[in-house]
């Protein structure tokens, strides 16, 4: 099949897919979980959920405010509750925050209800995406690049436990990433049934 035919087949299949499990986006901050997850849900015609967004709405506060007022442990507790609730309630695409996949309980719930899709990117790509925005409280340090690098080194081995991994380089667009996720999920008819 040519690349064009392959893309066409993917587009047709995506018109009426049957989603059997929630597709859960995991990976480092800046990997594109929120942006790619939203575009993927749109392409599949399924609900899009973002755990950070749900936490912010429920608390009526931004993520930095929650960290400032209540601390990271409080945020992680809310994150665990929200992820479990969203997985139980609805099937769709769920983008998690970068730290969520570190908690064993979250990994267990994700594997019970969904499929973990890790978005991977080099440290430099991640840094270029997160450096201009002050919305990630963990990076409010004297040397945010060094902080991001430390988090990256600690977390990468855990992200490798995801069911599926998709790599994004500096030149792949959000739609390229959606194509790559859909392509990777072709090997998983238990997740997405192609008609
Ligand atoms: N593949 C991509 N190509 C271009 N920009 C991207 C890509 N993935 C993410 N971005 C941009 O990078 C920033 C961070 O992405 P975001 O989805 O918030 O990441 P995450 O939720 O993993 O922290 C956003 O401005 C987003 O639009
Ligand atoms: O990596 C992390 O621990 C975090 C990532 C953020 O989400 P994104 O990965 O969507 O930026 C957000 O949940 C919070 O700032 C903590
Ligand atoms: Mg996000």
UniProtKB/TrEMBL annotation:
Q: Which GO terms describe its cellular component?
A: cytosol
Domain of life where this protein originates: Bacteria
Fetch the InterPro entries from UniProt: P-loop_NTPase, Shikimate/glucono_kinase, Shikimate_kinase/TSH1, Shikimate_kinase_CS
Q: Which UniProt keywords apply?
A: Amino-acid biosynthesis, Aromatic amino acid biosynthesis, ATP-binding, Cytoplasm, Kinase, Magnesium, Metal-binding, Nucleotide-binding, Transferase
- Biological processes, Gene Ontology terms: amino acid biosynthetic process; aromatic amino acid family biosynthetic process; chorismate biosynthetic process
Q: Report the subcellular localization.
A: Cytoplasm
Give the pathway listed in the UniProt entry for this protein: Metabolic intermediate biosynthesis; chorismate biosynthesis; chorismate from D-erythrose 4-phosphate and phosphoenolpyruvate: step 5/7
Main localization (coarse): cytoplasm
Which positions are annotated as binding Mg(2+)?
A: 34
What is the E.C. number?
Answer: 2.7.1.71
Among Gene3D superfamilies, the record links this protein to: P-loop containing nucleotide triphosphate hydrolases
Q: How does it assemble?
A: Monomer.
**Family, as annotated:** Belongs to the shikimate kinase family.
Cite the binding residues for substrate: 52, 76, 98, 155
Q: What class of enzyme is it?
A: transferase
Protein name as annotated: Shikimate kinase
